[in-house]
Structures are given as C-alpha cells and as structure tokens.
Amino acid sequence: MDWRSAGLDPRREAILEYAERLTREPASIEEADLGQLRAHGLDDRDLLGLAECVAYYAYVNRIVDGLGVRLEDA
To answer: DSSP letter string over 18-68?
Structure first.
C-alpha cells in the first residue's frame, strides 16, 4: 500500500516519486527531476512513456469521478 516502505530498488523509487509529484504537484516538475530519472537509466522515450502513463491514469480517474461512475461489487 505504501511504495516508500516496500523495499523497492532506487530506480523504482525514483519513478514512483516522479509519478506522485506529477499527480499532486504537476507544475513543480523541473528539468532536474528528469535528470534524476536519467541518472537511473531512463531515456527520453522512457520519460515520455512515464509522463503519458501518469497523465492518462489521472485523466481517466477524473472522467470516472466526474461522471459518478462506481465500481460494481465483484
């Protein structure tokens, strides 16, 4: 439930830190943040995919919430 205490490797922690900041404080992302991800081996294509994935997840959730969609009991 909490990625910070999950014992993940530093690369995954950096990715999740970025994803959380992009979700909560998108205007706070700077070139230095991308540099940290590059230092963990991500290239420009990886960064684009990561930003797209985070943004799409936020978009879909806002559409679902905005329309009052509720999950079925399963």
So the answer is: HHHHHHH-GGG--HHHHHHHHHTT--HHHHHHHHHHHHHHHHHHHHHHHTT
pLDDT of residue 55: 96
Q: What is the dihedral of CA 4, 23, 40, 45, to 10 degrees?
A: 150
Spatial CA neighbour of 25 closest among 47, 2, 53, 54: 54
Separation CA 38–CA 41 (nearest Å): 5
pTM, rounded to two decimals: 0.85
Spans of the chain, pLDDT less than 70: 74
